[in-house]
Amino acid sequence: MGNWRVWFVILVVLAAGVWYVQHAKGRRVSASEPIFTAERDAVQKVQVTKRADDIELVNDGGKWRIAGNDSLVVRENRINDLFDRVLKTMRTTLMTENPDRWKTYMVSDSLGTRLEVTGWDGKTLGSWVFGSSQSDWSKNYIRTEGRPEVYLTNSSVIYNLNTLPTFWGEAPKPDTASVDLGDTMAPAPDPVQVDLK
């Protein structure tokens, strides 16, 4: 009679173990969902922060500029990448819900790269911290500010989150098609031909 009880207890423990493993796997898998769902036109300001460095991009009625920098013109392709790649990032697998493990996934305040998007009314539309994956360079980790969960992303976009002004902007290109001659515009002169024979 005693052997029956031992086997019963072993079966119950095994069943509980199988249930726990299956439940834990189910919690780690998440349906892919985009991190940002608002329209592009709703965004008035974007700020990228990494450690002590940060940069702020401001939408002035459809024309983007770098806050505090009048010498560079924003590269349109960088803004397009921000909206078409970074803000369309999908979060996929749940990695942890434990804030003590944020450093493992490089999404702590001191290690991660923070992206904040603000609307025209001054309200935050979204704020996330991105971390690099040490094992899979094609993906990143992400957590939403104010939430403990860390997810794996479907692609790597962290290189698009740079704090250097020269990454986002470039010096204005001079207009070489014409030369200003006072009040009139004339075609630029032909280059001087030198015969070296």
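Above is the first protein from milestone M3; the second protein from the same milestone is given next.
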Amino acid sequence: MQQTLFEARDAPAVTVYTDGGCDPNPGPGGWAAILDYGDHEVVLRGNAPDSTNNRMEIEAATSALAYLLGRHGRCHVELYTDSRYLRQGITGWIDDWFARGWVTKAGAPVKNQDAWRRLYELSHMHAVSWHWLRGHAGDPLNERADWLARAARRRLGTTTAPGTTPAEAAPREPSVPTVELSIGVSCIGSRGPGAWAVVMRDGEARTLMQGSNRDTTSNALYLEAATESLRAVDNRRPATVYAPSLYLVSGANEWVSGWQRNGWRTKSGSEVKNREAWEALLRAAAPHAVSWKLVQESGGDDDVSEARRIAGREAARLAG
């Protein structure tokens, strides 16, 4: 089913692979979404302590479309899932559910109605082609999505609350706690490939974000990680960013204001490197009160060290 509710030739084209599941079902669940832009990718994942396979599948697709809407606006999306329930529901059943007021032909309330409603709304904000593929049949991105979803579910063994996605966070009062973003990056050589990861903590909820690029630098990865994670935070939420990068933290705390006053030139008069990335970061940070904290990687079980390990594994995979 191809939805063509808007015409936008220059809209970004993104390939998305999603997966989700519980063990047992119902029970603790995890989901994951891989967003492939061609030259780089973003990985989203989260979990829930009490869910179902079907609900986690919907959650993965919803999270991907919500992220794209917040990051890029409307997109052309090719979405791949091994869930017949998800694909059949969104391409074959959902219009009838909507027309009947979210009840089945038998007059019973649609299961997972709240999740389907969110997905229905988001799907109409993009042009989405929904594809079903057989799971565990050797497709590399489907296999990765499955592994990431299971890893997200296993994280419930060390956390007490569900992972969540920014698009689904409930409206909050102005006095809400600060969102904590812990960044780790890894870059192979001076020009990549490289990867970044961010552990996001919102109260007791925990979400992991990842991204990668084959042609990049460590500094660019830190900027990308900070930008993407701040874009994922609800508007007007305060945020604290933890990173072992003097370039990112001092740049955000001290240098960038001077660069702007000097027309994006350094004190020596040279052009500021990564200017577009810095400008994107400033736009992402604008809706928030952001605190930038320089930390060291301990190599232990803190969030920054975990993010660095995740980024390191992904960079090594890309380097092959």
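Note on the second protein: DSSP finds eight helices and ten strands in the chain.
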